[in-house]
Amino acid sequence: MISRLASRALPTRLRPLAYRAFARAVGANLEEAELELAAYPSLGDFFARKLREGARTLDVAGGAIIAPCDGVIAARGTVRDGALVQAKGRTYSLAELVANDVLATRLLGGEYVTIYLSPRDYHRVHAPVAGHLVGYDYLPGSLWPVNPRVAARRDALLARNERVVIELNSAQGRIAVVMVGAAGVGNITLTHGPDSASFRTAGERRRVELHDVPVERGAELGAFRLGSTVVLVFEPGHAALDPLEVGEAVCFGAGIGRSA
Length: 260
Known about the structure:
The chain has eight helices and 16 strands. The strands form four sheets. An eight-stranded antiparallel sheet has the order 11-7-8-9-13-5-2-15. It has about 260 residues and is α+β, with helices and mostly antiparallel strands.
């Protein structure tokens, strides 16, 4: 229902009024939008808007790891005994999250950070470092809300929801950039592949090989149509994340760590 409403085109003259009202309600910054508000046909298009040029500055220091998106820190730590913290002590399995035994094994003991995107945030996702895209896995699942209150009550939420696992090879080793869908997310748009909606009807896992597509730090990887979550997991010994606090806000492009 939410997804259908978000994808419904609005009359052009009503779009600025509707999006301004929405922005006031959730605290979105309209000054960062790339286009005039009337140019976004639907709420989903508005959510997936690009930033205007110069709206963000990337941390370009040598070895910098940048926030791949806007949001707040939902969890941060080290993968221990094959598990990540979801919220308030609830854990879930790395192997179930990425559904790739080879990748999961490489990431055991590595650092991770989970970023929750609320309706107020910019909803595109970018590469945290420069590297090469190896491929991605579309994993079917539920579309439960992923806000911190629900995450604190529902076991293994992030490993049960529909998601796309983007595998990146870099100077910081292998990195999993996991885009987790949520209630109201019609689809996850991928810059280097088909949208997740194209796989949803079959309800089956799909692997797409990308054959080492080069990406720069900050290059766009995809976008959410509505709020959701990104989980970054790094290969051990290659990344040192900053001491980020749960609830701390981050913005795309800001430094969140360095190469180890």
